[in-house]
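Researcher: Next sequence.
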Amino acid sequence: MSRKKIEQQVRRHAGELIQEKGYASPVDLLVKMERLNLKQVKDWRLKKIPYLEKVMNGNLGKLNHTLHTLKKFAKEHDLKPSVTVYHSWGKGPTQNLRFSKSGDRYMEELYSNHYIHKTRKKE
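Model: Next structure:
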């Protein structure tokens, strides 16, 4: 998939997420773009997958472009970034979940930022 097509998909799906939820998160976006499925996300939350990138469809360069496009979309639409900590589910001690193999702080923040519509009120 070309970079231009990725950008079009990000903009379309992020807009849909804002309308549906009042925010757009990278995980929700990647599910809508079919780079992840809900079972993979659930398995990650249950600690069956060590980091989310391991099961994502597409190469890391395109995933990186997707995340940067979402960040750019959020800035253009004056969405408020909010870092969200993802915790594991299930038995045993709760732990913070990783998105990337490297665990790089910048990449982890890109994946964990939710972009919130500033004027939308919760129902």
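Model: The two ends are 37 Å apart (CA to CA). Strands lie at 23-24, 80-83, 113-116.
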